[in-house]
């Protein structure tokens, strides 16, 4: 019975989706898994100058406060850099996906990471 309810819920959620929506969601998930090379450019709308460019396997912050942006980039097998950037009335940014990525327009990608469920506990004195 639980399986039937789950299947009905998923089918209902997906019934209004088109190929572009599914491919877009899968591209976003791939970028959040550091599989997509991106170029993020910060642009001053008054001077017309590029202020900063970040390029690499980067993920944009998903829950950033208004007028701010975090960019996390994978720089090695187990090393990352996180950038905190403020936005203003005349500073904006755009993100370019540098290379094409093979994603499915028919099936949503689901990533399950069991180790993320178990917290990494640090004890301080």
Topology record:
Elements: H1 2-14, H2 19-32, E1 37-44, E2 50-60, E3 68-76, E4 79-86, E5 91-97
Walkthrough of the structure:
The chain is of the alpha+beta class and 125 residues long. The protein has one domain (2-116). It has 2 helices and 5 strands. It has helices at 2-14, 19-32, and strands at 37-44, 50-60, 68-76, 79-86, 91-97. It has a 5-stranded antiparallel sheet, with no helix packed on it. A hairpin with a 5-residue loop joins strand 1 and strand 2 (50-60). The longest helix has 14 residues, at 19-32. The radius of gyration is 19 Å and the shape is globular. The chain starts with a helix and ends in a 28-residue tail after the last strand. The model has no long low-confidence stretch (mean pLDDT 86).
Residue stretches low in confidence (pLDDT < 50, at least 5 long) are none
N-to-C order of helices and strands = HHEEEEE
Principal-axes geometry comes out as globular
The description of the largest β-sheet is: 5 strands, antiparallel
> Per DSSP, what share of the residues sits in E-state strands of 2 or more residues?
25-35%
Span between N and C termini?
Answer: 50 Å
Report a brief summary of the structure.
With 125 residues, this protein is of the alpha+beta class. It has 2 helices and 5 strands; from the N terminus they run ααβββββ.
For this entry, give a set of tags.
125 residues, alpha+beta, 5-stranded antiparallel sheet, 2 helices
């Amino acid at each position: 019975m639980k399986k039937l309810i789950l299947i009905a819920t998923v089918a209902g959620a997906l019934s209004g989706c088109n190929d572009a929506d599914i491919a877009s969601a899968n591209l976003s998930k791939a970028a959040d898994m550091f599989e997509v090379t991106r170029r993020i450019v910060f642009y001053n709308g008054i001077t017309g100058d590029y202020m900063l460019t970040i390029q690499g396997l980067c993920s944009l912050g998903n829950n950033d406060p208004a007028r701010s942006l975090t960019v996390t980039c994978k720089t090695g097998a187990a090393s990352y850099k996180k950038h905190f950037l403020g936005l203003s009335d005349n500073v904006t940014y755009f993100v370019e996906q540098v290379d094409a990525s093979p994603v499915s327009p028919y099936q949503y990608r689901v990533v399950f990471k069991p180790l993320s469920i178990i917290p990494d506990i640090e004890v301080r004195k």
